[in-house]
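Notes, p. 3: input format for complexes.
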Amino acid sequence: MTANSTSPTAARPWWKDAVIYQIYPRSFLDTNGDGVGDLPGITAKLDYLKALGVDVVWLSPHFDSPNADNGYDIRDYRKVMAEFGTMADFDAMLAGMTARGIRLIIDLVVNHSSDEHAWFVESRKSRDNPYRDYYIWRDPKPDGGPPNNYRAFFGGPAWTFDEGSGQYYLHYFAAKQPDLNWDNPKVRQEVWDLMRFWLDKGVSGFRMDVIPFIAKTSGLPDLTSEELRAPQFVYAGDPRLHDHLREMRREVLDHYDTMTVGEAFGVRPEKARDLIDSRRRELDLVINFDIVRMDIDGWRKTSWTLPRLKALYTELDQAVGPFGWNTVFLSNHDNPRSVSHFGDDDPAWVERSAKVLNTLILTQRGTPFLYQGEELGMTNYPFRTLDDFDDLEVAGRWRDVKHRVSEAEYLANARAMGRDNARTPMQWTSGPNGGFTTGRPWLPVNPNTATINAAAEAERPDSVLNHTRALIAFRRDSIDLREGDYRDIDPDHEQVFAYRRGKLLVLLNFEREAVRYAVPAEQALHGVVFGSAEIQGQTVRLDGWTSAILEVGAG
Ligand code: ISL
Ligand code: CA
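Output follows (555 residues plus calcium ion):
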């Protein structure tokens, strides 16, 4: 049973104060020279994570998979992916984390499985196979076409015809990722059992992949042309989602001390509240897309402004309500590197702007998520051609649009926003392959590992790594940053992001130009408590791309 969370003043659950670090195991550290990261690689870096000060690791899928979607297509939920090692390696990694007071949450991918999962192999054998209803099969339309006009996120229709049984099966993602049928109580029971398997091993909870999609719209009607532009808002909209989550909590979660964070792809802020209001006994947290996707329309990159970013932070803070709690992040394995997306990755500015962004992540109100390499200021990768990308989403979307978009335009967007930008290997040293592998890396290492790497940054007091490490420590001791109310004091300013957290004032300069920022008289400045700034009366001078946290007195 998690702490009694039916009132906002109840005992504070551990995950509200935790700093979470996401590991994409394929790209973290390779210890056997096959060019692919592995679990012993994570175990080898636990002291690095402890020194950074993170409390929880979110591990992207480590399960047996054919890797059509790099592990988000699971073939056996109770087996470790061969490339990543063995169950003994998993147990050693978990024991190492536990010994250091670091909790582990794993990735629950149960909207779909791999088409190589035993359930699907059985299901497709015949219409009367006992596993048929583990997935979503429908007859063709009279003209032989797919049952409706749903589109898949990785290109093409969301239906694939199975010659053997003469029906289509549904897959919101790749054809190798058939959607599970959550209306089938046997499917739900299988999920409860596999969750208990890992909870009984000692994991502390789950990040739940596209969990709002598990409840399919009754009747599976066609989407309108408007809905087709962003089908995720329909796929995430069926109310039976809440029934499934409540059953999950009753059957499994309430019997363990867990944290659950749902990937709320397709859920708008006002709807997200229903998923995390502690009185509803569903999820604890959600990962929302409003900020990281504020300047992406399908495959196309648009633009963002600082006032718009600020407005989103205020909207999300207000939407979460007194019985909910936010997550705060700027990147993950599906999004570009934060310093390339929201900072300035010019070599002269990358370190300073990465420090500003990590200050933003670690001083906003909510549970912060750092993505591997973000603590170093790792950047997007200079992909040259579409063939350089590994991600099936890049290839799949290109097939969808190539008849109406030039390759140059599509490539420019993929270079800016493609998921592989965040999947290039961790940069540990300036040596060959950034110290990630002694073999040939599965995805190339960014050449800027020459300067952006953990070993070099550990030695430099003003590095992104040491800034992030110090700020995590500062945050741990600051009740204002952990619990203080959030208020943007200057939403329209186009260069400075200025907000209160309790009795602290956070100032972030989002430009290369230095700025003299006038703090309103009613916020009497008492001095800089973190970062660097000059105070003259109520005016604070910030160099280009720097941040500061100030203490403010009443009156
Ligand atoms: O936004 C997206 C759809 O165009 C993708 O970046 C992503 O598929 C979406 O955010 C859902 O992500 C999750 O489910 C996918 C997997 O590929 C992602 O890695 C995972 O985070 C399917 O399992
Ligand atoms: Ca390896």
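Residues 185-199 form the longest helix (15 residues).
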